[in-house]
Amino acid sequence: MHTTAAHTTPTRTTPTRTTPARTTPTTPSVRRRVALTAATALLLLAPGTASAAVLPAPEAPAVRVFGASDRPTGAFGRLYLLAELSARRLATADLVAAAKRGTGSPVDAPERERQVLSTAAHRAQELGADPAVTVRIFRDQIEANKDVQRELLRRWDADPEHAPSERPDLAGVRAEIDRIDAGLVRAVAGSAQDRTAPRCGRLLTAAAVRAAAGQRQDLAHAKALGRALGSVCARDEPPVRKADAAMP
């Protein structure tokens, strides 16, 4: 009786790979990097910055806040000013939300928004800028501000212990917003050529990352900054026409 040896297929042993456990960001620097990455991603995907979509999101640099004597100049400096003012405008959303909390006042304020857009259009016209383009940028600014307000109100409702204990004067906050808006209109008017240049997306992304770091923005504010700057870069911006100068 013949016995046939059983043929066995050698079993390949795959070495076990140990994946390091992911740690939740806890330090301010890590949280800041996450926030800046979110802002950068939104900027790269925004309609006006499509030219930068092929670029990798930059690392959050070690950032310092520029003083008056060493502000960046040229195209980057002009776009940085626009991004910095936008970040400052977003910071006022905290005060607006605190002023509205518990009063029943809605986040949306149509009359106030129309006033802001009308004023921006008039200022742009006086500076020789395109009112329609300026209004489009300001609409993004307003919506981004409201995004932050909603997020903060949601947080405070979920965790009242971290809600602000004092209620700011809304009229005073809006007066500060008006001052920032005047600077924003000038920044929009002074950067017309930069905003239509092919490299606008790249420069604006770097400017936004730096501005967000200078303001020490959290994730909600950094994401909102991406929305606030979504219409800044625009190819083939139309010339000023009389019809565009009409109030919105």
Question: Outline of this structure?
Answer:
With 248 residues, the protein is an all-alpha fold. The protein is 57% helix and 0% strand. It contains 8 helices and no strands.
Largest pleated sheet: none
Radius of gyration: 24 Å
User: What general form does the structure show?
Assistant: globular
Q: Total number of helical segments?
A: 8
Helix share, percent: 55-70%
Explained architecture:
The N and C termini lie far apart (101 Å). 57% of the residues lie in helices and 0% in strands. It is mainly α. It is built from 8 helices and no strands. The longest helix has 28 residues, at 131-158. It is globular.
Q: Which properties best describe this structure?
A:
248 residues; mainly alpha
